[in-house]
Write a structure and sequence with these properties.
Elements: E1 2-4, H1 9-20, H2 27-32, E2 38-45, E3 48-58, E4 61-69, H3 78-93, E5 97-103, H4 107-115, E6 119-128, E7 133-141
Length: 142
Amino acid sequence: MIREYKKGDEIAIAAIEEECFSLPWSRQGIIDALWEGARFFVFEEGGEILGYVGIRFVLDEGYIYNVAVKKEHRRRGVAQALLGKIDELAEELKLSFVSLEVRESNTAAVSLYEKMGYGKNGIRPNFYDFPRENAIIMTKRR
């Protein structure tokens, strides 16, 4: 089940961040990101949050913060379902595009994004730390 973030979800989201990213967001950072013009969705199964996606939007532009899934639940369609929720939101809000950055080495994520209709349209040199790496900018136009 995919649902919108509710108070308290930041604990599970922060744990997923710790597992997935070299520079994870803190619980407070997650809460702070939820200002007007931002939404988080979680994929929940049996009371457990398996993954999440966050997006912020300005005018008719959408920018995905992060898409992350617990390692033991990957390759089960969780990230694809979360991105599908973003597609629904983009349609509802009439966004002209949704964009994100992904590590060049994350070929599994790049493949998923391409499958979901995102195209490569730029590089951000040395965007990531630990390890230092370029980001591919991927965008889905509507």
